[in-house]
Design goal:
Blueprint (H helix, E strand, L loop, with lengths): L7 H17 L1 H7 L3 E2 L10 E2 L1 H20 L3 E2 L5 E3 H7 L1 H4 L8 E3 L2 E2 L5 E3 L2 E5 L4 H8 L11 E10 L15 E11 L4 H18 L4 E8 L11 H18 L3 E5 L8 E7 L5 E10 L1 H5 L4 E2 L5 E2 L2 E6 L4 H12 L12 E5 L5 H13 L4 E3 L6 H10 L4 E5 L1 H6 L1 E8 L2 E9 H14 L2
Parallel strand pairs: 3-9, 11-12, 18-19, 18-20
Antiparallel strand pairs: 1-2, 4-8, 5-8, 6-7, 9-10, 10-17, 11-13, 13-14, 14-17, 15-16, 20-21, 21-22
Helix pairs in contact: 2-10, 7-8
């Protein structure tokens, strides 16, 4: 393989992008910043998050959770392992078995003479949360008044990706989705779909992903890998395209890119290097409600089949974290940074004042630390910069006397310094920046 360029300038831009991509590689930064690791003892593609990485993840989940509560979602939780019969019912074993981990044989019984009394059953770690959400819907009778029913779960799933395609957090075998399934009446479908679009774009832009386009995955009419009625497929595809056109953002149609049970809408974002990443997805599904035979009682007293919307704005927490690390080059905005404030006393006699300030920031909900090591001040500043801590507060005699701090901040434009800043005013400023997720 090779590349050809129409000018030396374009080639230089490309080479610069490759160098930047290498510097921003989330696997390298994740190790340097002590965010996550992939222990050999766990197996390929199964990450563990360290304390600082866990803080980033918690901030993401808390923001997502609050947005979903505001939007009227109900939170549920489902197990990681289930009988294979569930995935036979959903169609996953027929159409998605290659992407699933092999089954475990459980619940078999053998008597004292070694005779099989009960045949073991196949159990699988789940590749999807949707079959279980159908079971929750079907756990009791439902009325049309309860719809739309929006079920949300931070659901961890497992997919048997081939070893050659596993790539850090962006292609893993175990990952957690911000997964929701909406059960709606036909007259509610368009509004709910548009609301999901709005929520997803809002969430992505909060994290600095401002360039978003859509990719509509439709059925390939020549393929036999899809299930369900052709008329329902055509209807769902038309409804997705109409919704996207109403929003007014650019989109492309990709025949053959649909899920086996329904068409989908992928969110494609562009990072600061101009690379495109496929993140969240929305799918309109007439098939699974049919397979699970779920229904609600309509206003006419008759049973009606709901329509199901699958959606996950992040796609997966792990993948989104990896993309954010590369997007920000590890320089997270204040609200996402695992270590937000480092207080640097110039001499040992300033340690007590520094610790008092740290306590106030901590009680206000900010993640603050004091570097009271024996290193010189410049070495402490350099260490905080290496750990990409966004705000450094330097305190000496003058600051202690006036309840002030000298501020050194990391910004996209470079380092910003301010001297003699009143501590209370700075604390209010930091809290406002955190609250606004600026």
């Amino acid at each position: 393989y090779g590349t050809a360029w129409e000018s030396k300038e374009r080639l230089d831009e490309h080479l610069h992008m490759l160098r930047e991509a290498e510097k921003r590689d989330h696997r390298r930064l994740g190790n340097e910043m002590d965010l996550f690791s992939f222990p050999d003892e766990l197996g390929s593609g199964l990450p563990v998050f360290h304390p600082d990485g866990g803080i980033i993840r918690l901030a993401m989940e808390d923001h997502s959770r609050r947005r979903h509560i505001e939007a009227g979602y109900s939170f549920v939780n489902t197990p990681h392992v289930t009988k294979g019969s569930l995935f036979s019912k959903s169609g996953h074993l027929d159409w998605y078995a290659d992407g699933m981990f092999p089954p475990m044989k459980l619940d078999g019984e053998i008597d004292d003479d070694g005779n099989v009394v009960k045949q073991p059953q196949d159990y699988y770690v789940k590749p999807m949360n949707c079959p279980m959400h159908n079971l929750i819907f079907d756990s009791r009778g439902r009325s049309y008044r309860e719809l739309p029913l929006r079920l949300f779960e931070f659901g961890t799933v497992y997919r048997y990706e081939k070893s050659g395609v596993i790539h850090g957090l962006t292609r893993a075998r175990g990952f957690t989705q911000d997964d929701a399934h909406l059960f709606v009446r036909p007259d509610q479908l368009k509004k709910e779909f548009l609301d999901v679009l709005d929520l997803t774009v809002l969430v992505l832009k909060t994290f600095g992903m401002n360039e978003v386009r859509f990719r509509v995955g439709t059925r390939d009419p020549e393929s036999d890998k899809y299930v369900g009625d052709e008329a329902n497929w055509a209807l769902a595809e038309r409804q997705i395209i109409e919704a996207v056109e109403e929003v007014g953002l650019p989109y492309t149609v990709e025949p053959g890119d649909a899920a086996f049970y329904g068409p989908k809408l992928d969110f494609v974002v562009k990072d600061v290097l101009g690379r495109e990443w496929q993140l969240g997805t929305i799918q309109v599904d007439y098939n699974l409600p049919e397979r699970f035979d779920i229904s609600y009682v309509g206003e006419d007293g008759q049973d009606h089949r709901p329509i199901m919307i699958h959606r996950a704005p992040f796609g997966s927490i792990e993948r989104f974290t990896g993309i954010l690390i590369e997007h920000y080059a590890g320089d997270f905005p204040l609200w996402l940074a695992p270590r937000q404030v480092m207080i640097i006393p110039i001499a040992d006699r300033h340690n007590e004042y520094a610790e008092a300030l740290r306590g106030e920031l901590h009680r206000a909900g900010l993640r603050a630390e004091v570097d009271d090591s024996s290193n010189r001040m410049q070495a402490k500043v350099r260490d905080a910069e290496l750990h990409k801590i966004p705000v450094m507060l330097i305190v000496g005699d003058k600051e202690q006397e006036g309840r002030e701090v000298s501020v050194r901040e990391r910004t996209p434009e470079g380092t910003r310094e301010r001297k003699g800043v009143a501590f209370d005013a700075l604390k209010a400023e930091l809290l406002e920046r955190r609250a606004n997720r600026s």
